[in-house]
Amino acid sequence: MEVPEGLKYSKEHEWVLVEGNVAIIGITEYAQQELGDIVYVELPEAGEKVVKDDAFGVVESVKAVSDVYAPVGGTVLEANDALPDSPETVNDDPYGDGWMIKLEMSDKDDLKDLMTAEEYAEYVAQQKGEDEDEDDGEEEEEEDEDEKK
User: Fold this and answer.
1) Which residue from 76, 99, 118, 141 puts its CA 20 to 30 A from 6's CA?
2) Is residue 3 part of a domain?
């Protein structure tokens, strides 16, 4: 799994590239892998206000519909207009052409709550470990059910 250096990451699996007072936001490779094939993307319009930690868009995959949360707040400067017509771009290039929005940050202190690439990689490893523990528990329950029969 790719976790590029130089980006900031949220616990909801969004990434942020900071260029001055502009934040470019997308979802991480881990997020798009968990979602599966993305078939629909809904993004805000330029000029809309985005509040930190609130949903700003929707990603629909063959598995689920998920909100995309704003890791920082501000005003949308641009949405990636290519994504509604080619949502699979998020799967193919989540850190490049799959970016979602550019916004002018209202408070750069929002960045303090985000993780570095190293911290995010550790966070994802923990998440994967928890997922495996849950799967193990379900298998044990099924074995117990079989033994009772």
Assistant:
1) 76
2) no
Whether the CA torsion 41, 105, 30, 64 is positive or negative: it is negative
Q: Any bridge partners for residue 3, and if so which?
A: none
78: its two tokens: 């641009």
Task: Give residue-wise pLDDT tens across range 99-146.
Answer: 999 999 999 999 999 999 999 999 999 988 877 665 555 544 554 454
142 falls within a domain: yes
* Residue listed under structure tokens 């994802």: 124
Residue with tokens 């929707």: 58
Q: Which two tokens stand for residue 38?
A: 């993305």
Give Cβ neighbours of residue 49 (< 8 Å, ≥ 6 apart).
73, 74, 75, 76
Domain membership of residue 96 as a residue range: 8-148
Task: Assign residue 126 the CATH number of its domain.
Answer: 2.40.50.100
